[in-house]
User: What shape does this take?
Amino acid sequence: MSLILISHGDFCHGLRQTAEMITGEIPNIQSVSLNPEEGTDDFARKFEEALDKATGEIVVLSDIMGGTPCNVACRYLDRINGGLYGGMNLPMVLSYVSEEGTESIVEDAKSQIYDVAVKLKAAIADITDDEDGI
Assistant: This one.
């Protein structure tokens, strides 16, 4: 199993470092950042390199669902056989590397998806209401 953390800036590196401070060295973990001076193609190249190094089931945790790192990772869903999850945080990483594996991450993701769906539904209702008033 492999875990790849992706983010804007150094968040993914700091999260990895913090997780390893708590658990000790985590095998098969990588972090890939999108730096301010880089573009989408630069990040895609680094992400592909991480995928090439990964073995077995590949799980990718992203900082923001819909952000550039996550959007680039979506291009590689055929290779991300363990799932791509947004909103990564330290508990998600620790859950994954513990015996719980991806099941805990899936539960966290379901909760986040529900929250986003509720917010989107409200936003769509507001837009619809505004258009009806025009």
Notes: The chain has five helices and four strands. The mean pLDDT is 84. The helical segments are 11-23, 40-53, 68-74, 90-97, 102-132. The longest helix spans residues 102-132.
